[in-house]
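Worked example

This section walks through a single chain of length 344. The input is the sequence exactly as stored; nothing has been trimmed or padded.
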Amino acid sequence: MKEKLLTPPNICTMLRIVGTVGLLLIRPLTLPFYLLYTFCGITDVLDGTIARATNSTSEFGARLDSISDLIFYAVMIVKFFPILLEVLPVWMWYCIGDIVHNDLEVERLRLRGLKTIEHEQFARLQHCRVLFRAHGEPPVSYEIAQKNEVEVIDASCPVVLNLQKRIRKAYEQTREQGGQVVIYGKRGHAEVVGLVGQTNGEALVIENPEDIRQIDFSRPVILFSQTTKSLEGFQAIAALLKEKGGAQVVVNDTICRKVANRIPQLREFAQKHDVVIFVSGEKSSNGKQLFATCCEVNPRTYLVQRAEDVKPEMLENAQSVGISGATSTPAWVMEEIRHKIELQ
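Given that input, the structure is written out below as tokens.
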């Protein structure tokens, strides 16, 4: 049976592509830009919602959605990254933690004057600019900034900010009934610190099935997840909690699909090439996850951080080489590696 192309979800995705291309024609940080950006966001939510509600998902729709996401990322980089470089003054900005989990990019920005600090140093700063990175910050960071007259440049990911609001709302609605907010994530990870902060530090963080023993299943349990965790891992934890707590457990799937949706595509990509060079910083959580995905289907997958890490023996007898990377891997690093491979 021939697949229908002009379904309501696909039309929404096509409109998003048109809107995204339109963003290239509008000056950023203006009202028309924000309106068109909002339109793109609404259509992004609508296509998936309609597809699930009408059971009209399709292979073409999934591919079209992936293409739309890539176009959107490219446009955002083209529009905003030059602005960041232009406005970033020497010695004037601080960032709580590495701005991205990539040492090369952190060093490049350090040379432009972006100083990485920890929360202890941040609490002592006054009358300066501080960048809040994509992972988000707990409420106390905003309180400190206001108290010390620190100008916050908030680059928190909108997906993370929305998750913070959901966790805070769940915490406030259930604490009188003894509800427990549980977060599946990595202890100490910047995003998880911000999420736990929404509950005054009371949320339980679980990393593996062994951690479930700290949950009291005689009380309501509300499960959330760090956005960059694996979907399979979250589903396994959710199933265990449901098995033990039954109706007392409310599961909220808060995995970011921008990462999760890459996994099947990355498996297909890794199978196509003799060798895969995966570019990622050592600190990147999604980099570790995506690298492991490549290794599952292609044993000749190598993890590198920079062009110098690519050795001739990695490419021996390879007719095709695929290059991929983590979400935080800068395009300029990927290009340097591609150039080195082409010269060998």
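What to look for: The radius of gyration is 22 Å.
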